[in-house]
Amino acid sequence: MKIWEDERQCYIRAVMEKNSEAENEALKAQLDAIDWSVLEQIERKETVNERGVFAPLEAVETEEIERRRDEFRELGIKAIREGKVGAVLLAGGQGTRLGLDRPKGTLNIGIHRELFLFQQLIRNLMDVTDEAGAYVPLYIMTSNINHDDTQAFFEEHGYFGYPKEYVKFFVQEMEPACDYQGRVYMESSTRVAMSPNGNGGWFGSMVNAGLLSDIRSHGIEWINVFAVDNCLQRIADPLFIGATIAYGCESGAKVVRKAAPDEKVGVLCTEDGKPSIAEYYEMTEEMATARKANGDLLYGFGVILNYVFSEKRLEEIADAHMPIHVVEKKIPYMDESGSLVKPDAPNGYKFETLVLDMVHMMADCVPYEVDRKREFAPIKNLHGVDSLDSARELMQGCGIEL
Question: Which UniProt keywords apply (predicted)?
Fold first, then answer.
């Protein structure tokens, strides 16, 4: 049965009763292209969203990294020179919270000169490629909202000096949004309400965009994935990649020492004996405040969304299918009378895959400590905590000319 024939789907049926025949044909084509099996997850949501038993995971701390610096660097540089390292930039967001109706990466973070967020990230990557004397293939994940703008911005600025042939763009896949009864929302009379499939959907989106052949043709064995909003992060960091290789692990995660027990960051730990991430809201007060004998927090290292994964293992995960989480959200929609509704409270479900599951599906993970003053300057707001103001201050502290 086609979804528009299902009598429960009141929002879809309401618009189809008012649409022209041509509009309905276009809508049917869109509906046919969607994988509706995600709606089955509503009944399984408690099982999928349920967490196991958390336990602490020791990190490779900065003292050890300094002591083994030459060893880690040599391994990482060798992997880069042999073409075994690729990088994925997660850049699907708009800069709405920053007063920017464009891709977040187009934000000017300079003060006395023009310096774009994308530009700074490319500069960070080129610090490594200049040192290695070899380029790293860069894959940029956009969204259906900002894809064209992002590509045009890179073209306009000559890819900020990075060779164009080493850069590929792909669009993050979307999933339908629905109410609590599984009735799919419409965002307009001709478009289903859709949302990105979560921060764990990047590799599956790459595969479905046909980029697996490109990854294989380069001979990539390690993929460093990172988010657009952290302007200080090191990308394809030879020390980080080298440490992951040296420890013989399938993955690594950059972590920072938590500023306070209640800091709102996910914590790298184990879950049922395998590497995982406990979100800050999942931690009990006892977990958050527990300390080791030396006074350090037992769960003391927060993730910064900068990971390295074995490419071979990622392919296995993609084949096995990642868990789909059912998340309550506020979803704007068109009601049955044709009026647009902007809810003040959660009114339905979105379906997301999470990078924490990607970590959890790895056999092991190296928590790799970095200095937050030198590698963690996320820009989520204009002012206050994790803002453009705080990022600029940290960048100046690192000697970056603004």
Answer: Nucleotidyltransferase, Transferase
